[in-house]
Amino acid sequence: MTTLESAPLTVDFGGLRIEYDERVLTPRPWTAAQSRWAADLIRLAPPGTVLELCSGAGQIGLLATTLAPRTLVCVDASPVACSYLRRNAAHARQRVDVREGLMDEVLQPDEEFAVIIADPPWVRREGVAEFPEDPVTAIDGGDDGLDLVRSCLDVVADHLVVAGSALLQVGPDQADDVRRLVATHHHLAVVEVRTFERGALVQIDRLEDLVA
Fold this sequence. Notes:
The chain is 30% helix and 26% strand. The chain is α/β, with parallel strands linked by helices. It has a single domain (28-206), classed as Rossmann fold (3-Layer(aba) Sandwich). Helix 1 (32-44) packs across helix 2 (59-67).
């Protein structure tokens, strides 16, 4: 487990006490909307576990599964973020399966999830310097801002149950890009997009498998 050398900062996130420091992306209050929408999807979803990708300090998934209790698996590549996630889960009195590493390496091929929540880095690399207060690895989405979005959609395509839902956070101008990427996965469909000043939330559902 990573030692947290910096003094933690604390924020109230939808009623949850969330700890983090400057090495972790600061929880954005508006993203509680993703938690609340995810909770609505969880209540309607088939039986199964909730997966959060690019979870950071864990606030979005923890609030979602506080509002609509389910087993939660969280994935993040940052050891520091995972350490804070474990602390925040303990504060929320939740048992969370925290997996530290790349999403395509820490998930088993046969694992399936009823709801998948994702908040990947989506800032275009050329614009990262505009956000000096944010850790580069937490916001750098590659040349077009969509590198980690593509990775998350691959996980959704491979691990979301039939009739399950994914809720993806992207930049405010990236919803059309997500629609285009989702269209390359024949069994996924964009159901709804909600746009906010700081970002957009995209609901993606897994359709019934086609019968030959």
